[in-house]
Automatic annotation (TrEMBL):
Its cofactor is Zn(2+). This is Methylthioribulose-1-phosphate dehydratase. GO terms for biological process: L-methionine salvage from methylthioadenosine; pentose catabolic process. The keyword Thylakoid does not apply.
Length: 203
């Protein structure tokens, strides 16, 4: 993918996720893979609903910026960690919603979503009669350490779902391309909103 195409995809993703309330304030960050060694990622601290092409920059898989005058997302190393581990990952989205924040604070080490039609948005789940268990990892301002923890966690999982939650912080999903990543993010956040609604019901 070209940098111009990547920038257009990230700007459009920001508008879409902002319209859904998933990137309040300057929260969230997005990326797409450019080639085997590089990704295009959002610049840190920008409101993701109002991105322009100038708010997208190139880093390598170690998070090193091509243009050192620009500062990439504070969470760049989580994007790099996904592209390094999953060769089929072509786009990564991170959002902060009320549902993912609340539920990740209430959850243990993982969160299972079961019986939702929208589970079909995740790979290998052809019917609603299925479940996906997403890891919930501790939040940490040391992003390199958080990624090391994720790598250890992934090493121990028999199969790795294409997403996770960071406690009290937000959700990450990835997919082969941006349209598929958006579909996963919307489906995940819809199911989390349903879970939140269920917990609001009087028992
Ligand atoms: C105001 S949100 C706090 C930082 C964060 O969690 C986030 O997703 C946005 O950080 P970035 O550096 O990518 O703008
Ligand atoms: Zn965040």
């Amino acid at each position: 993918m070209t940098l111009e195409g990547a920038a257009a995809a990230l700007v459009a993703a920001g508008r879409r996720l902002d319209a859904l309330g998933l990137v309040p304030a300057t929260a969230g960050n997005f990326s797409v893979r450019l080639d085997a060694r590089r990704l295009a990622v959002t610049v840190s601290g920008r409101h993701k609903g109002f991105l322009t092409a100038d708010d997208v920059m190139v880093v390598d898989l170690d998070g090193i910026a091509e243009d050192p005058r620009k500062k990439s997302s504070a969470e760049t190393l989580l994007h790099c960690g996904i592209y390094r581990r999953f060769p089929q990952a072509g786009a990564v989205l991170h959002g902060h919603s009320i549902a993912n924040t609340f539920l990740s604070r209430a959850a243990g080490n993982d969160l299972t979503l079961a019986g939702y039609e929208l589970l079909k948005a995740f790979p290998g789940l052809p019917t609603h009669d299925a479940e996906v268990t997403l890891p919930v990892i501790p939040n940490d301002q040391d992003i390199a350490r958080m990624q090391r923890g994720l790598d250890l966690l992934w090493d121990g999982l028999p199969s790795i779902p294409p997403g996770y939650l960071i406690r009290g912080h937000g959700s990450y999903v990835w997919a082969p391309d941006m349209p598929a990543a958006l579909m996963r993010m919307e489906a995940l956040e819809f199911m989390l909103a349903c879970e939140l609604e269920e917990r609001r019901q009087p028992r």
